[in-house]
């Protein structure tokens, strides 16, 4: 009997996800789905590898066993870590699309309505064009989003795993705050964060923590570069902890010395904006309404600061280059999607450009409940930290 100890979830959980996918396929008259997105492959099977720059796919028929087409080296991850029994690998000198075609023929799936993820990051256009041009008997339809329709709300098993990721996030953030002292370098802070996260049981995140200080805080999506932290400046930290590819994220800000009044005012605004978001989130409220809850507070500031991004995004399964699921759901103006129980979001009511050259972020990762929301975190506090 096959050992399934390497699975992240129970077999029943994977069976539920596959069954739900097939129900969506049936409603859309899709007979075969070719799934290529790394996050979707992980969600449906438990399969993960960093080698996703090579073509990989899960082929899901309406009836019968799903199978995987992977590079031969990556096939070593299938049996120990997934619920999939069948694979059809290709060598480094082989042809992935040709292997896919022969596998579809082998299982008599080539003359079907086939759905494929047209917007999948790692299914490039040249491979899609070859597939569409070569599979003459097949009928293709874009099914991008068909798996994400299940991923957007998390099961109890997923929420428990995200709680473990939250523990790594909190421990890493606390270590980063304590290391952000004058005289230390950004690299010192990064080393402390990574050491703490991994010792707390965390795994490698989809993106390394964002750790910047002084004038470098104004750089979007920048991280440590060896700069020495000076007195009387900000250190901005945004950390994503990971457990079995599930992430939670947190922003906190440290001031090295006694914070000037402008930073205390920014702290109050950020906390108010975050509290407004937490108070409004519940099933049925739209993404735009949650964004507005933060944006109207921040836009009234007299500090020259802005909320220059969306106010939050879905978070959960992630592979590089991003730890978020923002393409599935983002909290931003004009988005009328209603929230549902089980959605998980990173709320980011941060202030950019305080007096033109400073930032402050206090964020939280939450899950939507039946009547509101709950944070995954209990520490560190939602405030501006100081170090001397």
TrEMBL record:
Domain Peptidase M24: 161-370
EC number: 3.5.4.44
Coiled-coil intervals, chain numbering: 4-31
Pfam families reported for this sequence: Creatinase_N, Peptidase_M24
This protein's UniProt keywords: Coiled coil, Hydrolase
Residues in Creatinase N-terminal domain copies: 17-152
Gene Ontology MF terms in the entry: hydrolase activity
Gene3D superfamilies reported in the protein's UniProt record: Creatinase/methionine aminopeptidase superfamily (3.90.230.10), Creatinase/prolidase N-terminal domain (3.40.350.10)
InterPro entries: Creatin/AminoP/Spt16_N, Creatinase/aminopeptidase-like, Creatinase_N, Pept_M24, Peptidase_M24B
Name of the featured protein: Ectoine hydrolase
């Amino acid at each position: 009997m096959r050992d399934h100890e390497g699975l992240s979830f129970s077999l029943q959980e994977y069976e539920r996800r596959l069954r739900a996918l097939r129900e969506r396929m049936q409603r859309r008259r899709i007979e075969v789905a070719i799934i290529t997105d790394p996050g979707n492959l992980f969600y449906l099977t438990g399969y993960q590898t960093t080698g996703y720059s090579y073509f990989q796919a899960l082929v899901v028929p309406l009836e019968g066993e799903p199978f995987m087409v992977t590079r031969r080296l990556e096939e070593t991850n299938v049996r120990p870590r997934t619920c999939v029994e069948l694979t059809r690998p290709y060598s480094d000198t082989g042809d992935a699309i040709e292997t896919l075609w022969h596998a579809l023929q082998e299982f008599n799936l080539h003359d079907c309505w086939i759905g494929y993820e047209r917007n999948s990051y790692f299914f490039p256009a040249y491979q899609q064009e070859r597939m569409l041009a070569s599979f003459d008997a097949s009928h293709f339809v874009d099914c991008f989003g068909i798996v994400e329709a299940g991923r957007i709300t998390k099961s109890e098993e997923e929420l428990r795993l995200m709680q473990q990721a939250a523990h790594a996030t909190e421990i890493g953030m606390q270590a980063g705050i304590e290391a952000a002292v004058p005289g230390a370098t950004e690299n010192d802070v990064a080393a402390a964060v990574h050491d703490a996260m991994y010792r707390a049981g965390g795994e490698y995140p989809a993106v390394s923590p964002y750790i910047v200080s002084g004038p470098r805080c104004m750089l979007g999506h920048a991280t440590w570069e060896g700069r020495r932290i000076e007195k009387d400046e900000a250190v901005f930290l945004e950390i994503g902890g990971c457990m079995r590819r599930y992430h939670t994220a947190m922003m906190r800000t440290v001031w090295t010395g006694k914070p000037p009044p402008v930073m205390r005012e920014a702290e109050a605004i950020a906390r108010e904006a975050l509290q407004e978001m937490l108070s409004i989130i519940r099933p049925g409220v739209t993404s735009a309404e949650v964004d507005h809850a933060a944006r109207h507070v921040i836009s009234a500031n007299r500090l020259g600061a802005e909320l220059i991004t969306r106010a939050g995004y879905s978070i959960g399964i992630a592979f590089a280059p991003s730890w978020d699921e923002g393409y599935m759901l983002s909290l931003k103006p004009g988005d009328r999607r209603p929230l549902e129980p089980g959605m998980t979001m990173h709320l980011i009511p941060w202030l950019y450009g305080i007096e033109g050259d400073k930032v402050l972020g206090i964020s939280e990762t939450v899950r939507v409940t039946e009547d509101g929301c709950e944070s995954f975190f209990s520490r560190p506090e939602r405030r501006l930290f100081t170090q001397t």
